[in-house]
Structure prediction request, 325 residues.
Amino acid sequence: MADIVSIGEALIDFLSIDKGVPIEETTGFTIAPGGAPANVAAAVAKLGGSSGFIGKVGDDAFGRMIKNTLASSGVDTSQLILDPDVNTTLAFISVKENNEPDFLFYRKHCGADLALNGDEIDEGYILESKILHYGALSFTGEPLRTATLRAIEIARGAKKILSYDPNLRPSLWDNLEIAKDEMIGGLQYADIVKITEDELEFLTGTTNLLKGTNIIIKYGPRIVIVTRGARSSFFNNGDVTVEIPAIEVETVDTTGAGDAFVGGILLKVLERLKKDLPIYTMTEEEVREIINFAHCCGAITVQRKGVIPALPTLDEVSSFMKTRF
Prediction:
């Protein structure tokens, strides 16, 4: 059984071999397993934590590649279903001139991740865990949406910690109004939320970090962390609010940096949980320690190509931190 369990999409990323161009101008791709919840599970495992993944891929070459990659990273894949009736979801990604990723998904009407059913959720697996992590893409279609809500219901009933990434991918929604409603709906179940600056503005209508995170907290989360790329991260738990500068590095590929960050946060939350330390009340010094660790996870990741192969080990993070702090 795993301490930290992710549920949602696992897919194959087709990564442009060209930097600074949109997808339509790329000349070729390399392939790598990805999907935000799967990446988070891999991030935790590579840092030495106990993680598992709940989801569905096709019983095809890509699906087997995903399972093998997660397993080799240390993720428990016992709850990853290979279904012969659906195709593994694909995502095509390029890095634009502003270093932001450009996405094109092959998922609608055929993506295996959407085919996860509620009756395929192993209740005991969630009950044995300590943290359940989910993302907004789980709410983009059925039956994955209902399956995710069932997993959330099980976790909440057992008083597990719930972590949420309101990951906005406009092309995967019928319209942005539905996206906003569903993403806000996901907030009400969460204890910890990692959100980007753009997503914060989308959901709250403000770019003010304090005002925006206070709005998010009113929906129910106990901790909100806003990631601001190469600039900083902003933490708010309703008591301590602090903005912590990011770590300056030369960027190769930003894809997966947020997932590496989340993995670092969840590992530190798990450590506090195992030491019987409070999760939602911390000193500013404790907050800075956790965020700096997560920043290092992200900083190492963006210096490498791909996602799961780029995620750091604990030794790599420890060594990196010694050079920066």
